[in-house]
Amino acid sequence: MGPVLSLDARFYTDPLIYKKELRGVLSQTWQFAGHVSQLDTTGDYFTFSIAGENLFCVRTSENQIKGFYNVCQHRGHELVKGSGNAAVLVCPYHAWTYELNGQLRSGPNIKSVPGFDVSTVCLTEIKIEEFCGFLFANLDPLAKPMDEWFPSVRRELSSFVPQIAQLKPIEWVEVPEKCNWKVSVENYSECYHCQLNHPTFANGIVNAKTYDIQPQGYCLRHTTECQNLDKMSYPIDVNANEYAGHYSSWFLWPLMSFQVYPGNVLNTYHWRAIDHENVVVWRGWYSVDGSDADMLHSLAVQDRQTTVEEDIHLVESVQRGLNSRGYVPGPLVVDPQCGVKSEHSIQVLQQWMRESVNE
Fold this sequence. Notes:
The protein is of the alpha+beta class. It has helices at 10-13, 15-23, 146-149, 153-160, 181-188, 194-197, 199-204, 293-322, 344-356; strands at residues 31-35, 44-50, 53-59, 65-69, 83-85, 89-90, 97-98, 104-106, 125-131, 134-138, 167-177, 212-215, 219-225, 246-252, 256-261, 265-275, 278-288.
């Protein structure tokens, strides 16, 4: 049995593969929608997208968080834009009006229609799950709960970030990348390239020599120790709690990652696939009521100017290479001992990618 070869270039360059993913993996998995703090009050809502679908979340009068396709059931107009607060949901096209739970309340002159029963008309609902204060959506009505997809992650994440229930987003960085979403996700899911390409991350945040990644359900769990304190690019108290001196990341297939920097600093990646050769990556930073905002802002700036910027050049170069007639898939470096110089995590990830298009 020979080495495991990387995926064929067509997985990253063929628009037909992307169309399969839109109908399959991108429509049938748990993906980040937003944060529960965006829906503090009854009637708060925000829009988002998954697999090209326009969607929104809202806090109902029953204090539930629900998600819907952002489309009026009358003639298909979008109901809401951006974020805001509303007592009821009114379509701007013909003023059909829905309760916050999606049930049609009224519409101009609809009582003149014989047999029209408003109780039979409701917005199309999607599955929403709250996960450590983060809201995830799944377009598959039969989707299994997140804890079955990602075993132990909720417990582990809460242990690494004891204050996670009080966190709110304080910094967002939006990063367009000219590559297939899988190129960007693969780049995130190995640290084989870190010491060569990310000096600030590898020398000022983590001890790259101890870096390892292991599958955990449909999660890839990254673990390592922090860098020596005299080399850290920001101050931490390693005695604050059990995990203050550690780094860990939980990549949730296919498009979300929770990342905890040393000092229990939570940040996130989430990807939105635009087409077969473009993706947008959002970097989120979180704190309790704005605490440590200056430090987190400095970290976000450092991250954008170093690791994120470095990765943009890497993934865009890979995409250009995958479009070359000269590319022949080479063997992955799968070390039985795992570790930072191994691509065992990419082997797992690419198997999920094959399965997602049934190839």
